Amino acid sequence: MTAFPDLIEKIRAAAPGLRGRLLANQSLSDLTWFRVGGPAQVLFSPADEEDLASFLAALDPSVPVTVIGLGSNLIVRDGGIPGVTIRLGGKAFGSVEIDGETIRSGTAVPDMRLAKAAAEASLDGLAFFRGIPGSVGGALRMNAGAHGGETTDVLIEARGIDRKGELRSFTHAEMGFRYRHSSAPDDVIFTGASFQGRPGDREEIEAEMERVTAAREAAQPIRERTGGSTFKNPEGGKAWQLIDAAGCRGLVRGGAQVSEMHCNFLINRGGATAADIEGLGEEVRRRVRDHSGFELHWEIKRIGRETTPA
Ligand SMILES: Cc1cc2nc3c(=O)[nH]c(=O)nc-3n(C[C@H](O)[C@H](O)[C@H](O)COP(=O)(O)OP(=O)(O)OC[C@H]3O[C@@H](n4cnc5c(N)ncnc54)[C@H](O)[C@@H]3O)c2cc1C
To answer: Which residues line ligand 1 (CB under 6 A)?
Structure first.
């Protein structure tokens, strides 16, 4: 069984006022869609934004910090994640408030709930979030988007805490959004965001959300253990078409498989390791490169280390 040295006593000694929950050697596989991967050396769920800030300010700067959301775009490697992994809980970071045409949300809010709250307030523009199974925090980091809409289209500003424990805020321009990317500093843990809706008709927005759901059910293996689109679409090509043309549809490695339904999705057929999934992804990249010369880049974030601690 993989086990990291227990850091909790040291962390508590440096930050005696901590109110959040600290767990040592906590398995992360249940916290990701792929259901694979090793443990977090320490898993921290802060009580609120202030608790997160004081935790980070007191934490030894040499300890690495990783943040995860709902784990829908992640491969946690089999050796687990050294240092502290932070996951924001719904109690402190799960509120959604409507103020005129502005929607303010905590970053633990699932994108689907954000879409629903906007629709209930007859605010249009956020229906695309209905089909994305991540959290608002993940959407900010990934510039999540679907069905012609992206986070960048509706974000007003975001706030978060940096590695030193300082509160930072980012205007839309400062988020530096590109395709499935934000260039906000990597160390920032987003805690909240505000979005711009526009007045619309509730029934029409809800009908659009239903269309989004139906389109996904028909085209994507959304009930599988997967991480969504594995690779970004390269300039001038569609990842799934390149993968298909390279003969990778259905390709298997250990317990991992390229989805037969949508070949830019990898799935855990049961019993896959993170190494099976990542290795299969690398095999797909190699075959696509050999077949068409296109270089695929991972959209899925791969975190942690490959080998188990000695
Ligand atoms: C079935 C399926 C369908 C999908 N369809 C789409 C789609 O249509 N469009 C799309 O864009 N994506 C899609 N995805 C991918 C995924 O849902 C998005 O990338 C989503 O935004 C990830 O959010 P998350 O909370 O799950 O983040 P995670 O997967 O947990 O993390 C992703 C990244 O976000 C960072 N992160 C998470 N929370 C925070 C935070 N609070 N502060 C700072 N960084 C943070 C993590 O460090 C990591 O780098 C799909 C995934 C699945 C499984």
So the answer is: 33, 67-74, 88, 107, 131-135, 137-139, 141-142, 144-146, 189-190, 220, 222, 226-228, 301
CA end-to-end distance (rounded Å), the chain: 10
pLDDT digits (tens, 9 = 90+) for 91-110: 999 999 999 999 999 999 99
Q: pLDDT digit string (tens) for 194-203?
A: 999 999 999 9
**124 CA to centre of own chain:** 24
Q: Does pTM top 0.90 for this prediction?
A: yes
Q: Residue with the nearest Cα to atom 35 of ligand 1?
A: 138
Separation CA 228–CA 224 (nearest Å): 10
CATH among 3.40.50.2300, 3.40.50.2000, 3.30.465.10, 3.60.40.10 for 93-218: 3.30.465.10
State the closest ligand 1 atom to the C-alpha of 139, by its place in the atom list counted from 1: 21
